[in-house]
């Protein structure tokens, strides 16, 4: 995975410091897109701005961006995102940013758009703004990009020295996206507490190369409690395309709490299982958080956590529609070879599975996958 974590020898790890980091500014609310120019101004960002956006985002928000940035006196170009967070897309965005003399890169779209926007800004050393149009994962606040091959296989992570300068979340847009995306974000956010707890207890490095602060642990716990309290109501609000207080709290949990929680709290088996699952073609039809949710059940099983805890997690997943079985990820007929490849990828060198307080082998993960699947299938 990361050169950062790989570089942390046991000797260095013994001298790690408590470390926490975050975006400079987080803004969330209905119709927040109309505030983009004003918020850039408040951050002292004068442009020109390059907005990396999907065709859909551009169609929906293009005129609002133009109006809002013009009012703030910030020149703007829009560069269309091709769909995959890949090196090709990064290269294309870097060329467009250079051609337009951009001083700030704004990503407007889903997680892959934002990952690519960060990589463009990181390459050029520019300020970066995340405008997520989905609350489907914990990427918008992070100082890391997940890079895939052009055919959607997980490839590597790129780490940046700073988090995004601004994260601007328009909850009207989130409320108008399909329920599945919000629910997937809940799957990603659901793992946050359990992974942070593991990393804190194991005193292994968090995702920013330090030890987990009590601040990050508390935020991760708040993330979990918010999901349990408001998750179902927020999903139902999205079905009605309604912005409600429960939806606002879940958007904040999926985006801010989950983002701060995974970075400064840390990652463990759940996210490594996600990475392992991407080696199986049928899982490409499923979202990040859907794979993380199943990965979390695997983590809890491999850790030997209590039946109560595992059942609570599985019941929450079922209530909102997150997969907790292989069949739920298109792998109902997965043979032993498929599971073995997933498990081997899960424990590849540098994977966060190795943040557990015990040694983790491919065999343990394969057994955990089979056991998690059986438990979920047979649970009343
Ligand atoms: Zn995640």
Automatic annotation (TrEMBL):
Q: Which PROSITE patterns match?
A: ADH_IRON_1
Keywords attached to this entry? Metal-binding, NAD, Oxidoreductase
Against Pfam families, the record matches this protein to: Fe-ADH
Q: Does the keyword NAD apply?
A: yes
InterPro entries in UniProt: ADH_Fe/GldA (IPR001670), ADH_Fe_CS (IPR018211), Glycerol_DH (IPR016205)
**GO MF, one annotated term:** oxidoreductase activity, acting on CH-OH group of donors
Provide the Alcohol dehydrogenase iron-type/glycerol dehydrogenase GldA domain boundaries: 23-171
Q: Does the keyword Zinc-finger apply?
A: no
UniProt xrefs under CDD domains: GlyDH (cd08170)
**Family named by the database record:** Belongs to the iron-containing alcohol dehydrogenase family.
| Name of this protein | Unannotated protein
């Amino acid at each position: 995975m990361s050169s950062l974590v790989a570089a942390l020898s046991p000797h260095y790890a013994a001298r790690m410091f408590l470390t926490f980091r975050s975006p400079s500014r987080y803004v969330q609310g209905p119709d927040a897109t109309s505030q983009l120019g004003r918020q850039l101004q408040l951050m002292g960002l004068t442009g020109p701005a390059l907005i990396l956006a999907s065709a859909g985002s551009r169609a929906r928000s293009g005129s609002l961006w133009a109006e809002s940035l013009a009012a703030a006196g910030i020149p703007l170009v829009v560069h269309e995102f091709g769909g995959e967070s890949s090196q090709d897309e990064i290269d294309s965005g870097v060329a467009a940013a250079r051609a337009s003399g951009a001083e700030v890169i704004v990503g407007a779209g889903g997680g892959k758009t934002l990952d690519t926007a960060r990589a463009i800004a990181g390459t050029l050393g520019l300020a970066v703004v995340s405008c997520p149009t989905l609350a489907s994962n914990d990427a918008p606040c992070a100082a890391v990009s997940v890079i895939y091959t052009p055919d959607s296989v997980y490839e590597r992570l790129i780490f940046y020295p700073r988090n995004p300068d601004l994260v601007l979340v328009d909850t009207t847009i989130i409320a108008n996206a399909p329920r599945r995306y919000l629910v997937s974000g809940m799957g990603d956010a659901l793992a946050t507490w359990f992974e942070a707890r593991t990393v804190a207890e194991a005193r292994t490095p968090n995702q920013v190369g330090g030890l987990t602060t009590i601040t990050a642990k508390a935020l991760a716990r708040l993330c979990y409690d918010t999901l349990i309290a408001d998750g179902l109501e927020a999903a139902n609000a999205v079905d009605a395309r309604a912005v409600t207080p429960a939806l606002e709290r879940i958007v904040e949990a999926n985006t801010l709490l989950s983002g701060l929680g995974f970075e400064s709290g840390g990652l463990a088996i759940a996210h490594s299982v996600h990475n392992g699952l991407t080696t199986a073609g049928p899982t490409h039809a499923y979202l990040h958080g859907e794979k993380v949710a199943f990965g979390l059940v695997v983590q809890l099983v491999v850790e030997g956590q209590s039946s109560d805890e595992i059942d609570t997690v599985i019941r929450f997943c079922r209530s909102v529609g997150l997969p907790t079985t292989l069949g739920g990820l298109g792998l109902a007929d997965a043979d032993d070879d498929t599971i073995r490849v997933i498990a081997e990828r899960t424990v590849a060198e540098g994977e966060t599975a190795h943040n557990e307080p015990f040694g983790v082998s491919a065999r343990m993960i394969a057994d955990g996958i089979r056991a998690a699947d059986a438990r979920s299938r047979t649970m009343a």
